[in-house]
Amino acid sequence: MSMTIAEKILATHGGRDRVEPGELLFAKVDRVLGTDVTCSLSIEVFRGMGVERVKNPDTLVLVNDHFVPAKDIKAAQLSKNMREFAREQGVENYFEVGRSGICHSILPDKGFVRPGDLVVGADSHTCTHGAVGALATGIGSTDMAAAWALGELWFRVPETIRLEISGEPDPWIGAKDVVLHVISLLGVEGALYKVLEFHGPVIEAMSMDGRFTVTNMAIEAGAKSGIIPADATTLDYLRTVGIAGAEPIDADPDARYASTIPVDVGSLRPQVAKPYLPSNATDVEEVAGEHVDQVVIGSCTNGRLEDFEIAAEILRGRKVHRDTRLLVIPSSQAIYLELLKRGLAGVFVAAGAAVTPPTCGPCIGGHMGVLAENEVGLYTTNRNFVGRNGHPSSRVYLSGPAVAAASAVAGEITPPYDVRVNTKLQAAKG
Amino acid sequence: MGGRAFKYDDHVDTDVIIPARYCTGFTVEELAPHALEDLDATFVQRVRPGDFIVAGRNFGCGSSRENAPIAIKGAGVACVIAVSFARIFYRNAINIGLPILECADAVAGIEDGDTIRVELAEGAIENVTRGGSWRAAPFPEGIREIIDAGGLAEYVRRRVAAG
Ligand code: SF4
C-alpha cells in the first residue's frame, strides 16, 4: 500500500487502487462549498457550460458569510443570486443570515464532513476541514461550476509533508501559536502544491477547536490541505454533530513523504506574526509595546468557543483600553448562542467590546471594522497581507486569542502572562 | 506575442491583485480597472494589451478569488511569467484561460520595462531588450487538455455535450 492520507483519499475518489504524487486525475467530490463572495461568478460560468441541473445538489453547501448582513447593494445582490440558485437547484443546505456563520464553522458543525471525504470549496481556507481527517482544498469559481456540473473535478496528486509536533508548552500556548510557529519554519510557500499531515503528541492532546485552527492555516504555508488523522477526539466530536460510525483512516507506516519535520514546541512563547506575511511569526515579547488601534477576535481561524473562553478569562472584570477598539465575532450562530448562554457575551460587552453577528467582515476588510490609513490591528485571523484588512497603509499583526485579549486591555501588543503586563491589567481593572 | 515586462517580487497575493473592496463585483468591467491597485497604483494606466507580468515565487498566494486572474487578464496582460505560482491561482488561471509560465531563469534574466517575446505553445521566452532566451517547463498532459479546450468551462461544456 504505502500511501499517505491524501493519496488514499484521492485513490478512492478517483476509482484507483493507488496514486502517485504528480499524477493528474478526475475524482468524485463529497462536498462542494460556496459562499456569497464566490457563488455568483460560478453560477454565470455554470450557465455558460450549457448545464441545467447541478449533478448532486445534496453535496452542495452554500453559506452567506463574507459580506453579510449585506454591506451594500452589490453585496445584497451576491446573496440574492446564491439564494435564487439554491432554490432553483433544490439545494437544501443553504444558510441564510441569522441561521448561518462562517462557512468553515458551519461545514463541520452541521455534520457535513467525515474522515476520508474529499471536500472542495470556493474559499482558500477550505483546508480547515482536514481537521476531521478529510482531504479538503480550496478552488476557484470556475472549478466550483465544474464540480456542480460533473460531480467531480481535476486534481494533481500532491506530495505530503509529515509534521511531528511534540513538547509540553506553557498553558498559555494555544493552537494558533503552534501553527504560526510551523508556518514561520516552513515559509509562506514551504508547502506549495503539498499536503501537511499533522501528527505527534501535541496534536493528539489538542481539542477539535484547536485542530481546526491548525489545519485552517495550512494554506498560509502554500499547502493544498492540512490533515489531522481522525482519532477518539474526532469521533467524539463527530458524534455530537450527528455522525456515528465514521471510519478513521491513517497513513500507511511505509507511506512516502516529501519530508518529515519534527517540531518541538516545548519552549515556545506566544507567537505574533508581523505585517505583511503570516509567516513573519516572532515571540510576542519582540513586538510588545506596539500600540494597537483595533483588536479582532473571531474568523474561521479563532472564532470558536474555546477561543472565546480564553479571551473571556482575560477580559472578565477588565476594560478595553480607551485608545483601542475590540471586536468579538463568533464564527457561527450556534457559537453566538453559546456565548450568550454561558455569559461570555456579557463579559465582552461589559469590557467595552463590540460583539457582532457571525461574519467574515473585518478579516477580509469587507465591512464591520475596516482599518483606516496607518492604523494598526491585532487580529486572530489568518492573513495580514497589504490592504487585506483595510487601507493599504494599515498594518495587521496576527495572534491567538490570549495575546489579542491582553493587548485589547493594555492598548498595545502584550503577552498574556507578563508581570509588567499583569500590573497593567490590574491597573486597568482597578 | 511581444510586449513589455512589469516586474514584481515574491508572494504577490490576491489581496493586492484585487482587494476585497472590489470583490462585490465579478465581471471584467468591474475588476480590470483595479488590477494590482494596492501593489502598483499606476499599473492599470501604464499596461498595454500584450504586456507581461514577470514575478518571483508564489505568485497569486492567498484568497481563492478568481477575480484576481480575471482582473489581470482583463487589464490586457498576455501572460504571467513567475518562478512559481500559488496553487489555487495556478488552477484559476488555467481554468479561465490566462496564460501562465513557470520559469525561474527567465525571471532572473528580465528587468522591469524590458521588451519580451513569448511563444506560448513551446513555452519559449525571449528578452528582446537585453538578449537571452529560455524555455518554461511544459504543462502536464491533463492540464494541456484543459488549456487546449480554451479553459475548464469549455472543457466541461464539450464533455457534457458529448454525454
Ligand atoms: S473568516 Fe476570513 S479567512 Fe475565514 S473564510 Fe472568512 S474571510 Fe476567509
Topology at a glance:
The complex is a heterodimer of chains A (430) and B (163).
Chain A: H1 5-14, E1 24-28, E2 31-35, H2 36-48, E3 60-63, H3 73-89, E4 94-95, H4 103-109, E5 118-121, E6 135-138, H5 141-150, E7 152-156, E8 159-166, H6 175-186, E9 194-199, H7 201-204, H8 208-216, E10 225-227, H9 232-240, E11 259-264, E12 271-273, E13 281-283, H10 284-287, E14 294-298, H11 299-302, H12 305-315, E15 325-329, H13 333-341, H14 344-351, E16 354-355, E17 376-379, E18 395-398, H15 401-410, H16 419-429
Chain B: E1 2-7, H1 14-17, H2 28-31, H3 43-46, E2 52-55, H4 67-74, E3 79-82, H5 87-96, E4 100-102, H6 104-108, E5 115-119, E6 124-127, E7 133-135, H7 141-149, H8 152-161
Parallel strand pairs in B: 1-2, 2-3, 3-4
Antiparallel strand pairs in B: 1-5, 5-6, 6-7
The structure holds iron/sulfur cluster (SF4).
Residues 65-66, 102, 104, 123, 125, 299-300, 360, 363-364, 381-382 of chain A line the site of iron/sulfur cluster.
Kindly summarize this structure in a few lines.
The complex is a heterodimer of chains A (430) and B (163). Chain A has 430 residues and is an alpha/beta fold.
